[in-house]
Each structure stands twice: as C-alpha cells, then as structure tokens.
Design goal:
Blueprint (H helix, E strand, L loop, with lengths): L1 H22 L3 H8 L7 H4 L2 H7 L2 E10 L3 H14 L3 E20 L2 E19 L3 H9 L4 E11 L1 H27 L4 H33 E9 L3 E8 H7 L4 H25 L1 H21 L1
Parallel strand pairs: 1-5
Antiparallel strand pairs: 1-4, 2-3, 3-5, 3-6
Helix pairs in contact: 7-8
C-alpha cells in the first residue's frame, strides 16, 4: 500500500510540474513554437541566383535604329507589345520636310520635288519578365542599329527605407492623435497639433505613393525607342493654270517668265551645238584638207 501511495504521489507531482511549466511560457515563446521555421541549407543560401531573386529591379531599355519603313515597323512593334501583355504609352509618327524644289517643265506645269524624313518615338511598358522577349522581337525590325542600352536599378533598399518611414509616420500620427484628445478645450494647442498631424499624414502618404510607383516600375519595364528611315522623295506635277486662276500674274512676273523661256531656248541651242561637236570637227578637217589640195593644184 505504501508503494502504491508513493507511485501515485510521484505521478501527481509530475503532472503538476508539467502544467506549471506550460503556464510559465511567455506569449513570444508560444508564437515561436507555433510558427513554421523554414530551414535553409547552406548550399541554398549561398546560391547567387537566390540572392538576386530577393532583389527588386527597375529595368529600362533605350533603342535607336534605322528601319526600312517606319510605318510598317511601328505596327509590328505595337502588335508585339500588346501581344505580350504590355501597352503603348506614346507613339508619335511624323514626317519632316527637309527640302522642296519646284522645276518648270513646260509653259503650264511645274514639277515639285519634296525630300522628307519619317521617324517615330515610342514609349512602351511591358511585363518585367517579358522584356528580353520583346527586345528580341523588336530587333527583327532593325536595318541599322545606332544605339542600344538596357539598365537595371536595384530599389530594394529604397522600398525598405520608405516602409520604415511609413511606420515611423504612423507611430507619430498615433501619438499626435492621443495628444489632441488630451488637450481638452485648449483650442490653440488643438489647432497646432491638427496641423502637425496633417503634415505627418501627407508625408506618410507620400512614401506610400512612392512605393506604389516603384512597384509599378518593377512590374512593368519601360522601353524608349527612336526609329527612322532613309530620306524619301515625292514628286508631284502642278499645273500653272491652276495657280494663275487663283491669282493673275503681274506684268513684271510675265516679263520674267518670258525672259526665262527665252534663256531656256538659248540653253537648248547651245546644248544642241555642243552635241554636234564631232560633226563640226570633221567638217573643219575636211575643209582644211580640201583647201590645201586646191592650193597645190593652182
């Protein structure tokens, strides 16, 4: 009986000690015991690729190149961007006249020759993981590459800094709110505290918006493209009669036109004579030989 009593007493004491130990645990230790601990092997932790994946990059690309046809290349680039889940922020296709020459080809018509350049400046936003794929698709349109640059800015620390500033701002906001509640009927103190509270809220919101902007730039990379083609020429025949119908030329213009017409005739005659230089030379040689023989006979 004594042996059974001793065994029972030992069991009761053991249970009591176990329960007292469980009750003595702190809340932090309870949370730690309930949390799932992720074990990472040294090889996994030392892998550079895993460290890169933890970083947050803003990737941008700038391209400038010549294409065979700006309009065709623009359509291909825009379709590739939309097909990859991106979107076109800006596309500015334009033609710039470099030179315009009017040549009179007859009494009633002019030939207008225009030399112009076609270019386009595009800004694209594409998913970060599709940036390399889009650049490869764009490269198919290149006829001559002027410049190409790809940049990656690590903003991990900047985002962390903004988050810490937000946390400090929220804590300060709570203290200001508590101070306002404790001021009671002191109107001047309440107004001053309200102003400080508003400024603090603005700063906190500014950091939050800055982080949202950074996250957007991380998720969608920006590509700036300048494309152009070789100078193009356009010829158009313009009727002088149509111009005269709109405004009748003055006497001075008519005289100048007649003078130019007469000068063109002289130019045509001189050009025709120069084209016959070989016949003139043969005639001169024949005359010289004939004249020399005739003198000997006399």
């Amino acid at each position: 009986m004594q042996t059974i009593s001793k065994v029972a007493l030992i069991a009761v004491l053991s249970v009591s000690a176990f329960l007292s130990c469980k009750q003595g645990e702190s809340p932090t230790e309870e949370i730690a015991s309930e949390a799932k601990v992720e074990t990472v092997s040294p090889a996994h932790e030392a892998n550079p690729q895993n460290k890169i994946q933890k970083k947050k990059f803003i990737r941008t690309a700038n391209l400038k190149f010549q294409v065979k046809n700006v309009e065709t290349a623009t359509k291909a680039i825009e379709q590739a961007t939309i097909g990859s889940g991106g979107f076109v922020v800006d596309s500015n296709l334009e033609s710039t006249i470099l030179e315009k020459v009017e040549t009179k080809i007859s009494q009633d018509s002019l030939l207008e020759t225009t030399r112009y350049a076609v270019k386009n400046n595009l800004v694209l936003r594409v998913p970060n993981e599709k940036l390399d794929t889009i650049i490869s698709a764009i490269s198919k349109q290149i006829d001559f590459l002027d410049a190409r640059s790809i940049k990656a800015d690590d903003v991990s620390l900047q985002i962390l800094q903004n988050q810490m500033a937000q946390l400090r701002g929220l804590n300060k906001k709570k203290r200001l709110e508590k101070a306002i509640d404790e001021k009671g009927t002191k109107l001047s103190s309440i107004i001053d505290a309200e102003d400080r509270l508003g400024n603090q809220a603005d700063q906190t919101d500014s950091k939050k918006i800055e982080n949202l902007s950074l996250e957007d730039q991380i998720n969608f990379s920006t590509i700036a493209i300048q494309i152009y083609q070789r100078d193009s020429f356009r010829e158009a025949r313009i009727s002088i009669k149509q111009i005269k119908n709109s405004s009748r030329p003055t006497l001075s213009i008519a005289i100048a036109d007649a003078w130019l017409s007469g000068w063109h005739i002289i130019e045509w005659i001189l050009t025709f004579i120069v084209q016959l230089w070989s016949l003139i030379l043969l005639a001169f040689i024949a005359y010289f030989v004939f004249n020399r023989k005739f003198k000997k006979q006399v």
